[in-house]
Design goal:
This protein is of the alpha/beta class and 462 residues long. It has helices at residues 3-14, 78-87, 107-113, 119-128, 155-169, 183-193, 227-237, 254-268, 294-302, 338-346, 360-366, 376-381, 406-418, 438-441, 448-460; strands at residues 17-19, 25-27, 31-37, 49-55, 62-67, 91-97, 175-181, 195-196, 199-200, 207-211, 319-321, 330-332, 395-399, 425-429. The longest helix is centred in the middle third of the chain and has 15 residues, at 155-169.
Length: 462
């Protein structure tokens, strides 16, 4: 199939009828990706951009802006965004793709999604070339020296980019609710309490949704850094990679590439023997104990029971390896169907659901947000989240097992500081039942998040 025909086929597939909550066939929500001008930040001007995937009717009077978390991209929100747009008349859902994702190389990922290359061509481009001196054209990660400017891509850059999105979302008098998952919840709380030249970011918003993330005072396990500690962290960062290394392989891009490759193979070649499983460099913790299919291998790596502890940020209640078969497939049966999870991380043409290059400075700055209350570390880091008392917004927060009490505690404190009436605060505790990604990935009929956030959103903009 030619590239043009494949694109047309993909577009036709995206427009098929879906089944809504009431069992009535309905058209899939409209969806498009928009690129906006971003903040004039350190680094080449070509990165001063922010992409937004807009799901639902463009004439909607309400916009829910979704901010991704650590090492995450807009793609992982899209199954949720589509469900929300289907269930809520008058709402459009905007999923934010931060600037760091512009560093990614989707050349062969997009070609494979379009059916323009083989499994081997796709795999070898991203991973198969490693350890092969005579390998052909392949993905080449940027060197730390070439992207040193990303050491300055912290909270101020993320907030300034996000402000351009929020302002655009609110144009024409539309209502805007800001939501964030994980670190995205921290960014959302920072935005609401940010000091924009004497004006709190909350003034741009009609509500705040914190999905297993947010910000509060430091704890014994995670104290707010002192000014000296913040200076030391910045100094250390100046000598090391700008990006977070989730896998511990000293290859910051590896978690993103593993996820993009694994999820896409799980969707496009689900029943073939797991390509990643036969790759000699795959970390042992990601390999099933028996031969598995691409679908089975991907589920094994991300499930709460079998995934490695260092990848808790991407774990879900997915199901289990099939009890028989050679190679073994995957059996759904918990909160998240594997196809929904893989769709989220594979993403549409032009993006995926993971950030291959997550700026460490952003995480460092997030540690000083402190629920929007000023502290010495903020002055060192340039964090301006100081106007908690003015964040008088309806607040929704949901916490999973990864939150360990911090999420709901932070939401309560923010509501108390801003004197938000209790009737406008919804707190959902799923700490004994759900993993970090379950709220945004769960199948619609099993989603506590959907059941509780939809009425909150409708009430917030009445």
């Amino acid at each position: 199939m030619s590239g043009r025909r494949a694109l047309l086929a993909a577009a036709a597939s995206a427009a098929v009828l879906t089944t809504g909550a009431a069992g009535i066939a309905q058209a899939a929500p409209a969806e498009k990706t928009v690129t906006m001008a971003g903040f004039d930040a350190p680094g080449p001007a070509k990165y001063d951009k922010v992409k937004v995937v807009q799901t639902g009717p463009s004439k909607a009077k309400n916009v829910l802006v979704l901010v991704p978390g650590t090492s995450a991209g807009a793609g992982y929100f899209l199954p949720l965004a589509r469900t929300l747009a289907e269930r809520m008349d008058g709402w459009q859902i905007w999923s934010v793709e931060r600037r760091e994702n512009l560093l990614e190389d989707h050349t062969m990922l997009d070609r494979y999604k379009r059916g323009e290359t083989t499994v081997d061509g796709f795999f070898d481009y991203y991973l198969g070339w490693i350890g092969k001196p005579a390998a052909g054209a392949h993905f080449t990660p940027p060197t730390d020296a070439s992207v040193g400017f990303a050491r300055d891509w912290g909270m101020n850059v993320a907030i300034e980019d996000l402000r351009r999105v929020v302002k655009k979302a609110g144009s024409g008098g539309r209502s805007v609710v800001l939501a964030g998952h994980s670190l995205g919840g921290n960014i959302a709380a920072a935005y609401a309490t940010w000091d924009f030249k004497g004006r709190a970011g909350a003034k741009d918003l009609d509500g705040l949704v914190l999905i297993d993330g947010g910000s509060g005072p430091g704890t014994k396990e995670r104290p707010t850094p002192t000014a000296a500690e913040a200076r030391a962290s910045v100094e250390t960062l100046g000598k090391e990679s700008p990006f977070l290394d989730l896998t511990g392989l000293k290859l910051p891009w590896s978690a993103g590439v593993f996820n993009a490759v694994g999820s896409t193979l799980a969707l496009k070649a689900p029943n073939e023997p797991a390509k990643l499983g036969t790759w000699s460099f795959l970390p042992a913790g990601l390999k099933p104990p028996v031969p598995a299919t691409n679908r089975g291998g991907y589920g094994y790596a991300l499930d709460t029971e079998t995934g490695p502890e260092n990848l808790a940020l991407v774990q879900m209640h997915l199901g289990k390896l099939a009890s028989s078969g050679d190679p073994r497939g995957w059996e759904d049966g918990e909160l998240v169907s594997l196809d929904r999870a893989a769709t989220a991380f594979s993403g549409p043409i032009g993006m995926d659901g993971t950030a291959w290059y997550h700026p460490r400075r952003l995480t460092l700055d997030g540690s000083a947000t402190n629920g929007g209350v000023a502290n010495p570390a903020q002055k060192v880091l340039g964090v301006k989240a100081t106007r908690a008392k003015e964040a008088k917004l309806p607040i929704y927060a949901i916490e999973t097992s990864l939150g360990k009490g911090r999420v709901l505690k932070g939401a309560r404190l923010l509501a108390r500081n801003a004197k938000v009436p209790s009737r406008d605060v919804v707190l959902v505790d799923r700490s004994t039942a759900e993993a970090h990604l379950d709220p945004i990935a769960a199948d619609p009929d099993k989603s506590t998040f959907l059941k509780t956030v939809v009425p909150f959103l409708r009430k917030a903009v009445r």
